[in-house]
Batch of 4 targets.
Target 1
Amino acid sequence: MENKVLSVLKVFVIILFTISGVSLGYIFSDYYKLPYNNNIIAILGGFAGILVGALIAIYLAKFLRWFLPTIDQLFSNFSIPDLLIFFFGVFVGASISLLFFPFLQLIPVVGEYLKALLIIVFSLLGAYISGKKRDEIKKILTPIKSDKKSVYKHYIIDTSAIIDGRINEFLQTGILEGIIVIPGVVLSELQKIADSTDYLKRARGRRGLDTLDTVKESKIIPIEVVETKKALLSVDEVLVEIARQFKGILITNDYNLTRIGRLKGIKVLNLSELSYALRLQVLPGEDLNVAIIREGKEQAQGIGYLDDGTMIVVEDGKKYLGRSIEVTVSSILQTSSGKMIFAKPK
């Protein structure tokens, strides 16, 4: 592409100098009243223009081959708004310099040169100031949005969050405002799980599809299915890429995807982390009501659970099997898999 542009530019320069040579030939012969035929002088001028134009075109092409990549490298780190602000500063600086032109006309000889110098100085000064103050200029030029609801956030949901089932209850709270984005590859993965020959996988896949149907029918938040044209290696890469494109929040229950997304600068909401953060906080000495549903590993122990799934081991609780009793928390054990509470009947 670059070579084609340079070739066209060479031809244009040669044609321009040829026309200029012919024109100068006519002007020269008329001005000096030469005895030769004007057409001969014009033809000679045209040939001279071709030679001069060819030489200039060759050196101009060499210059542009160096200049264009340099400019490209120079401006590659600047965004379009930054470039617009830069040229805006140059324009304002050059415009301000015009105010001094009436005074410079009073200076003989060097006045015209000072005009050119003043334009260059004020243009550079305008570019420098606009570059320094570009963040403030962006704020001024950016329209203020009074209606906060007009700015929609995008929440990208993966397969693990859909299968988990808790996403439905989470969305029903209305805490999320925006658009739910589901990549097409996630739906394909969910369908494969729902069609699996394994009973448990099939049940989980169908539960995920039921969850999506429930969310869609509730209309509490719009759902958008997005197909990706870019060929990526894995579903996780698709999720991260879409989250980056939409500048959205990735909702998942996958530990590894959570880590990868955060390492790549994506905001990630992990449902398990959220559930853990919202667990009931209890302290030793507090009283709780718990249903004893099974025996413990140790003799006479009873096992119960809080609403958030936290296990409670009740000493001498075996005799209360199938009943709800008041217990007093004696100690709390934090493990890698969660929290375990030990209690005694009150």
Target 2
Amino acid sequence: MSLWLDVHQWQPLRGNLHPIADVECEPPDPAPDSPAGWHDWAGECLTEVADKDRWQSGRYHFTVQERDDEGRNLNEIAQGYWEWAADQPVQPGKR
């Protein structure tokens, strides 16, 4: 089984969600048994990626998806919103 997070960023000025990333994550063992458990697991995965890739602070929507080897969505396990606050702002001229 392959688990992915389909992630969209909330754009408040436009009032909509914009696709930003598909993130492959290691399946949790044991699997969460509640929506809150899946939300916590997704938050941990997203925090790791957002910190590494320096995502901007904001609100993100995610869907936890089980996908086949070709990347097709087989099952949507959970979804929700996640808030990210970047700890270290990028200094001008640096990435």
Target 3
Amino acid sequence: ILRKNPPGTSIIRQVFQHYVIPGTKVLLEPGAKVLIPVYAIHRDSDYYPNPDIFDPERFSEEAKRTRHSMAYLPFGDGPKNCI
């Protein structure tokens, strides 16, 4: 349920130091805001084939091990995680 209907549809974070996004030449400056589109990530077929289908097996221990660690963010992540 939380994958299909996350309590927050996006997360906004502020950059505190210069950061180059890995694999790119994109430089994030201090003070920049970054939006993480949780709703879109949770419905990305690269992470969740047939994303509109409810499939509890997506959250089996085996599936969790093979999924990107940031592909499921129902409550955010990091020091400002709400739970």
Target 4
Amino acid sequence: MLSLAAQLLFYSSIFAHNLFAQRKIEDVHVSINLQDVGLRQVLDEIESLTEFSFFYDEGIIDHKKRISLTIQNRPLSDVLGEVSIQTGLKFKQINEVISVAAYRPADDPQAQAVKDKITVKGKVTSVEDVQGLPGVNILIKGTSLGTVSDVNGDYSIEVPSSESVLVFRSMGFVTEEILVGDQSVINVELLMDLTALSEVVVVGYGTQEKVNVTGSVAAVKGREISEIPSATVSNTLAGRLPGLVVMNRSGEPGNDGADLSIRGFERPLVIVDGVEMDFSRLDPNDIESISVLKDASAAIFGARAGNGVIMVTTKRGSAAKTKVQVSTAYGYQGSTVYPEYVDAAQYMKLVNEYNEGSYSEEEIAQYQSGELKSTDWYAATFRRTAPMLRTNLNVSGGTDKARYFVSYGFLDQQSILNSGDSRYMQHNVRSNININLSKSLELRLDLAHRNEERNYPDASMENIMSNVAFSRPMFLAEFPDPSFPSHNGFSLIGPNYLSKRDVTGYRDGVIRNSTANIALRYQAPFVKGLTAQAFVNYTTDDQRQKNWKKNYDFYDYDPDTENYTKRVGATTEQITLNEFYKRSYRITTQFSLNYEKSIGEHSVKALLMNENIDLGGYNMQAGRQGFTNSFVDQLFASSAALQFTDGRAYQDARVSLIGRVNYSFRDKYLLEYTFRNDASPRFHEDYRWGFFPSISAGWRLSEENFMSGISGLDNMKLRASYGQSGYDAYD
């Protein structure tokens, strides 16, 4: 019998730049008692008992092979040695990952062919950072012979002949095949596989491997979003998720978020880290992934899922050395289409067609000859582009005991108004921390705060655009003395002055949003696969708005006399100040049980959860009119006889019972059932509860033997689903 050293190829090393040493498999002791089980169940058992995970090619797994182990408190290396003897596989440790590869004894025909061997050496690196890649599987195509790259990415392998083809395969990278030929040194650069990196997707109250999802779920990685220079997350999703419709609104800074709909329905439910909230103002650099749940996949959210669900997951730290990332994007925003207006001569001719004689030929000729200048009101009011700056600094890292992700982001967005009096600034702070209090108990603490500042002229962007459209090009946008505001020819102040805060007033606002999540996750040692979690979220939102409407005059100008004459009725009636304050809160509590069990080629996952939501708030406003001047923009500066006040409060709540069961056989035949029992106070007590079930099934055809001969087909799946969801936004 071959010795253990021949059966196993173990390798344990420490990265030179790592802050924390890796444990060797010889130092980890385990106890296992499994009889007549498959290899996958053995590996799952080891993963549950240790901090190691296995990496292997599905093709080397013999599902018919049965394994029996009875081991008490022995090193993991001994356990893997016994598995190696029973299966003919070899194992190699690369930090916290154990690579599994096929091994044939020396008398195997494939091994005998190596006696006329050629030794090939080289290094495997990543295209992105040209760093050595450890743990890359290098196989001789058509055989089970191979090796694994070391901690620096170096490898050495003996091949039968120059006709051999080496296959380089690593999780998260595109597989490469290279003919040996007359080469003795083959260096390989692997390209990152974005498809492989998105194999796990977020679904309702959990995650699933993408290949095992039976419902309609689309996902996008946060990296794709952060690369787009946009002020809002909602705008970055345009064209990136099938079935998601993105409709842009106002171009006003801070109000330019898009309206989202799934397959044309109304606004969907948005869940961020398990809690309902608006996500458009999240910092894109904080987002790990976004999933869109459609059809029956959304039914687990019950009475709020009628328009679909968008799931957002923020980034978290990992057990690795501290990483600092700084990103800054400076760009310009502008209209995709610029309106073209007629000049003064064209305008006068068009008016004459409708109302003959309104303008004489002499008047028209003055503009055609250039004696009098035509006004482009759009150019007088708007500039082509407006600058935008986004900066983010984040720090992440940790150990096997604690992991962290801390981020600060800043956004400064200006508008295309020539006045420069419209601006939006945003500050985001986030801290996501995971702490392993013990081997079975984990604490998750997430804190986030967002501060938004909006500064606008009194007139909205829509009003300014409307004014531009109705302005006559025969009238000057600005007089020789610009302190006298011009008009647009229709007894309205010119749009270029309407957009100035010092002329018409302002609309300012501040929003402060804070959220805190705390979760305790307990892995029950007495029931393998059972996990309990308690989760609490508290979110507050404070909004303050101040609207100061000034009175203003606009004038006519006589170029012959250089006199300015105030237009009749130009002065607004009263100076008005209105202040508004709103405060709201949301408390979400979740208590859940998760259970996972694998028996041979069967796998079952189950979830049972109770969710309670309590939300409410109040708002108030006060205002005064009749200010004698526009120098003091405070309520005390006007008479109490011309004041008004208002206010109101609201409260809402929900109670839910949620469940899900997933069944998988050989990772080919998939079945999922979910339900949600929702109680909403928006309905009469006799109809307060609603039951929302769903069922879905999938068949991974690409895993069947009769599909193995089809090249280029990695994942083919038939699926069907049925579910019910509700929409309780209306009484």
